[in-house]
Amino acid sequence: MFKELALMAVDSLRANMFRSLLTMLGIIIGSATLVAVLSLGNALQSQVFERFVDLGTRRIAVLPGDPQARGARDIPGYGLLSIQDYRALEQLVARHPDVFRTIVPEVSLRVQARFGSSAANPTVVGTTKDYQLVQTVPVQYGRFLTDDDDRQAARVAVLGALIAEDLFGKENVKDAIGKTIEVNGQPLQVVGILRQLGGPFSSDQRILTPVSTARLRIAGSQDLPGRGLQMSSILISLQSEQMVARGEALVTATLRATRNVPDGAIDDFRLNLPTQALNVLAGINGAITGFIALVAGISLVVGGIGIMNIMLVAVTERTREIGVRKALGATDSDVLSQFVLEAVAISVAGSLIGVTGAIGLVTLVGAAAGLSVSISWVAVFLALTFACAIGVGFGYYPARRAALLLPIEALRYE
């Protein structure tokens, strides 16, 4: 019996192909949007997360604190980071090799860089050779900084990709190795060019120099009274993402003790954790994806209203047919089932068309954008399931109206 009803539903669709296609339009758009958005959203989120991993998610950044915070205000340079803080954290890293990998300083300065008639305003970051273990700074040409560079306060620099292009021109970047640029009037020899990574957190717009060079030759005295070299930040590399919580606790306890922060006072320093940025990104991506999925759901509901409307028209057009069937012995349940199945057939057929179109669209967009895209089969399942529910929900009222028609009245209908 079910097979016969299903075949009748398919025949009904074929008899009015164009009308059925127009009825399916809302379902097609809703299903396609749901599958495409969730599939592409997952791919974009994965790519963003991978980029953050490349730029250093296995690290803790120690930053200066709020100068208005209540803490050890009697310390000169309160709230700022110094070489004393760095040495204390360096000992902490050495004591806990199971948690930490390495530690590097950052002395950041906004400067003017020149080569010939070309000029740029990058950020100079004074650091050490271990910076490569904390941040992703792949060298494309030349070399990176060395311990000897730091010991000698050598006049050397490693340029970010975009700064190198600004100073030397895109076609001459490779030839920049060995050339001398001026940074705040100080000559620095270019020993390396970094590969371009892209994104706001990369080193594309930076010039890396030994920390001693940044301190003595570019910035002049960066020392805090009685506390040594002032630092913009301190980066600590972790063994894995699972060590973020433990690393945070150890760093916080060490700095509070070193900086004599009283019990009950808030920290006079800040920790920037990778999980914070990742959680924010995940929240933004989830909110955008959820909003678009909601729009897709509304489109499906609108499609369901279209199905209800066309099924009411179908009931009116086929009133005499209903009367004949009931006169020949069809029950109310048979008629109800027939029209519900027709509504479900329209809805599912539309959903299948939408899902098929979305798979093709996602594949093309992924290939064009260079994304590694995989179809969200959860979205496909949701689209088809929701389509079935739409068909039953919005097809039931017209079907029940057809089932309750009296045979004699249906046969007399003109």
TrEMBL record:
Domain of life, source organism: Bacteria
Molecular-function annotations in GO: transmembrane transporter activity
ABC3 transporter permease C-terminal domain: residues covered: 294-402
Ranges that cross the membrane: 21-41, 291-315, 336-369, 375-397
Membrane topology: Multi-pass membrane protein
Gene Ontology cellular-component annotations: plasma membrane
Span of domain MacB-like periplasmic core: 20-249
Keyword field contains Transcription: no
Major site of localization recorded for this protein: membrane
Keywords on record: Cell membrane, Membrane, Transmembrane, Transmembrane helix
Subcellular location: Cell membrane
Pfam families the record matches: FtsX, MacB_PCD
Family the UniProt entry places it in: Belongs to the ABC-4 integral membrane protein family.
Protein name as catalogued: FtsX-like permease family protein
